[in-house]
Amino acid sequence: MNRCPGLDGGSAGRRLSALIAVGFFLSAVATLGQGLPDPLNSPTGGLGPAAPPTAGAVYNITLVSDSVPDLTDIDSYLRSITSQYATPQEQAIAIWRWSQRLRKQTSNPVETGHFVLDPIRMFNSYGYCNCGIISGINDALWLRMGWKAHYVQLGDHTVSECSWDGGKTWHMFDSSMSFYCFNDWGEVASVREIEQNPRFYLENFAPECATNPVRGPDDHRGWRCASDHPVEYQRTLANGYDSFKPPNDIQEANLLAQWGDRYVLNLRSHEIYTRHFRPLAGGGLRTFRPVSGNKDVDPSGNLRANGVWRYTPDLREPATRALVFAESGVNWAKDGVRPFQATGSVVFKVNAANVVTSAKISLGAIAATVSISRDAGIHWQKLIEGAGEMECLSEVAGVTE
To answer: Could you tell me if 124 and 213 lie in one domain?
Structure first.
């Protein structure tokens, strides 16, 4: 999911994931965004005519139901998925379960040369990664629970472990191959225990993870039921155990754990954010964030923007001045904004709730320009000179403001 600078934006998503909206500082001297067209030229993406101006704004909006977690921040998320369970093991299983549900097994999103590691940003705006990144995300969640965590590099795979008793016992969870299993004491088994007792993996698996207990590592009649195309990719229980054959590298230091992102949904006057249950029609780079090598993470077209953020400030309205981030050298009048001398500027800061994938900017003005910055005003790029419209991709994609 994500996307759109300026006045129109599209966002992407699967389940709870969405890449959306506007993200950048907009500098203009004029009347902005009057009668913007459908952002993706499709009924699904369109918002129709601009809504009439309304007074007031709403901040820190949280939308949840009784069947999804609260993904506002890491503490809200953990509280919403673990508070109903009494024991640490039940809580750990709940964390594993949601890390499995909120993502698709693919390549990893990369922004500004770095993997996306924050759980809140990953689950809200992307929803796809491989075993290494989801293991790091789980480590962040274990640590925030006040537990200890391991990042475990297997021979051909990566998993994570947690300890809720200060490191006395460890418990392996695999959110990529959707698996955990038990030792003979009913505790979730560790990597070291699985190494020494293949039976834990092959027979003592959780019922939600596999079918048909098998007699040994050469018996390929049992399957990990949550794996993608298990027969095609030979994802039997025996194949799964092969990854745990020693030696395995249990890492104490580099956990790939990172958190701190907060999902902020604020709507000011002249802002509309519409989310859809289905991806926006139209496709193309406007509606998704490519993975390494500028590749489409999902050629089937499911991991796509599912929202549009529309921002239409009218500089002829005195109330619009309250929405301005900064201004310089301008007078506000009934017919719009005019410079004192040769030039003046008005800067709008647009905060997208989700990650931006693209944007469409429309300017209705005389002798005005629009410039955009994706780094808090450090650098600016001129987009439009005089009245007109422009679609933006690289100028805004991958940011939230």
So the answer is: yes
Q: What is the DSSP letter of 321?
A: G
Claim to verify: residue 35 and residue 89 sit in the same structural domain: no
Q: What token pair was written down for 361?
A: 């900017």
Contact by Cβ (8 Å): 368, 386: yes
Neighbours of 304 (CB within 10 A): 29
Secondary structure class of 132 (helix, strand, coil)? helix
Report how far residue 79's alpha carbon sits from residue 73's, in angstroms, rounded to the nearest whole number: 10
Spatial CA neighbour of 312 closest among 270, 369, 272, 273: 270
Burial status of residue 50 (CB atoms within 10 A of its CB: 0-12, 13-18, 19 or more) = middle
Nearest to 174 by CA among 189, 158, 186, 187: 158
Phi, psi of 391 (to 5 degrees): -95, 140
E strands along 203-283, which residues?
A: 210-211, 223-224, 249-251, 271-275
Name the residue range of residue 210's domain: 74-251
Q: Say if 334 falls within a structural domain.
A: yes
pTM for the whole structure:
0.82
Q: Which residue has the higher pLDDT, 260 or 33?
A: 260
Q: What tokens appear for 193 in the block?
A: 């225990």
Q: How far apart are CA 284 and CA 58, in angstroms?
A: 32
Number of compact structural domains in the chain: 2
CA distance 341 to 259: 47
**Could you give the percent of the chain with pLDDT greater than 70?**
84
Report the residue count for the chain.
Answer: 401
Which of 31, 205, 228, 253 has the alpha carbon at shortest distance from 131?
228
pLDDT > 90 fraction of the chain, expressed in percent and rounded: 47
E strands within 182-234?
210-211, 223-224
364, containing H or E segment: strand 358-364
Question: Which positions ≥6 away from 315 have C-beta within 8 Å?
Answer: 28, 29, 30, 31, 32, 332, 336, 337, 346
CB 345 within 8 A of CB 9: no
Q: Which amino acid is at 305?
A: A
Each residue's pLDDT tens digit, 240-263: 999 999 999 999 888 889 999 999
